[in-house]
Every structure is written in structure tokens, then in C-alpha cells.
Amino acid sequence: MGTAEESEDELMAEHDRGSGLRAKDYIMSPNDIDRNEICPAARVYVGPREKPHPGMWHGIFIHRFLEYVLTRGHTAALAYVKSKRNKGVINVCSRIDVSKIPSHAIPEMKIMVDMEARTAEASEREFAEADKNILGTADIVYRNEGAAVEWNVGDYKSGTEHGVQPEGNAQLLTLAVGIQLMQNVERVRGAIIDVAKTGDLIWHPTIYTEKHLKTHMARMRRAHLLTLETRDELRHEKIEPDVIPGPHCRGCRASTVCVGGQLVR
Fold it and tell me: CA 84, CA 64: separation in Å to the nearest integer?
């Protein structure tokens, strides 16, 4: 989920700013890869954040609960969601069997991939650079020592995002590439973890082989280079990027100022 690493206050502050369409050298995230491969305008332009809606808060609160289970304990995590006075979220979180979350997992790990050096490290956003890094947040990372595939990375999904599968998922694959580079391993297990309304955690695991990860790293590099090239063309040659609408528009940074494939200036 793209908003998991951002606080409620940050979301509201960004929306309240009321900024319009603007070019920005933003740091690419795993969610940008599919979109930036296809749409040149998405590589350059951002608009004001979408106004937070109930579905967005639902996902944020559940993600934060699952994070706090590992960092603060179950009691404190429940206290957090109860403080939000969202009955739907409270009902879901109260039913989650937290014993199914590996207790040794690291939550909300920010993984920064260096596209030039082809290395990765756990790092905060303030140290990332747009011209060299892709930065993403893994909901959980953990190691099962002695297992055939020791390193695991997971991504929680809730609400309308149910049904996402791990095979070919650019977000999860990018995080898995980061884990592979950090730990110098050949294979990584990735999982989409659906958080059902019943509170059930439904795991959809897959194993990313060395070939899968190598292929995706090449895709990451291509999307990153295309993004840098389009930004340079606008900056130095004043070449306006084309808008190519499609399913990839969902979640685009410029979606609030792009209507029917036309940027609203």
C-alpha cells in the first residue's frame, strides 16, 4: 500500500497545500515502475494528493496496527486503533490472530536500491536520491534460518485491494530484489497478505528465483532510466511528455490533475 509509510498528518498537510500540477524530481517507488514504463508524463508530473477518504484511512490504520503489534505489542496496537474510533477497523483488528505474524519480523523496512551500483540497503527517505535510487517500504521482512528459502518479504493488502497476487507484482518484486542484494542470496520468498474483514490473514506466497529477480532488476533499471531521460528532455529541451492513460493511472502522482488523458494546468 503506497500510503503505509506516511502518517495521517502528512497526508492531510499535503492535501491542504492545494498545489497544482508541477514537475518534480521525485524518488521512484516500486509502485511507479509499471506506470513509468508506459506513461512519460507520469515520470515528470505530480499533482496535489488525493483527498483522504474512508477507504484510505481504513488501510492506513490496519497497516499501523500490524506494525505496532511487532514494535509496541498487541495491547498498545489495539489501543491505537481504538483511539481512531473507526468501528470497521476496530472489528477487523480485534479479530486478527497476531500469532500468525512472525514475531521476529522487521516491520516497515525502507529498502533503498542503488540503480547504478546495483546494491541495496535499509535506509530512510532523507538519504535517497532521485537520480540513483528506487525506495520502497516492505510491510514485513524476516528470516527463517535453515529453510530452503530463508529470506521473506511481505506486503499487506486490505479493503478493495484484495485479489492481488505476488507473481509478477512489481511492488513486491522490487522489495525482493532489495532483499536479495542486501543479503546476497539467490532466492527470496514473497507474499501478499490479505487482511480479510473477518480478521483472517490470508497468505499468498511465491518464490522468486534468481532469474525472476535478475529479470525484474533489468526492468527496474529501464523504468528508472526512462524516467531520468524524460525529465532531462523537459528540463533542457522543453519537450513535453505524452500522456498515455490506462489501468496504470490508478495511484498516479498526477491523477488529481489528469482528466481523460489531459493534464489540467
Answer: 11
Do 240 and 234 meet the contact criterion of CB atoms below 8 Å apart? yes
pLDDT (tens place) for every residue of the chain, 265 residues total: 443 344 444 433 443 334 488 999 999 999 999 999 999 999 999 998 877 777 788 899 999 999 999 999 999 999 999 999 999 999 999 999 999 999 999 999 999 999 999 999 999 999 999 999 999 999 999 999 999 999 999 999 986 555 788 899 999 999 999 999 999 999 999 999 999 989 999 999 999 999 999 999 999 999 999 999 999 999 999 999 999 999 999 889 998 888 767 787 6
> CB of 52 within 8 A of CB of 14?
no
Distance CA 195, CA 204 (A): 11
For residue 1, tell me if it sits in a domain: no
180 domain residue, yes or no: yes
Nearest residue to 6 (alpha-carbon basis) of 33, 40, 31, 43:
31
User: Looking at the 3D structure of the chain, how many domains does it have?
Assistant: 1
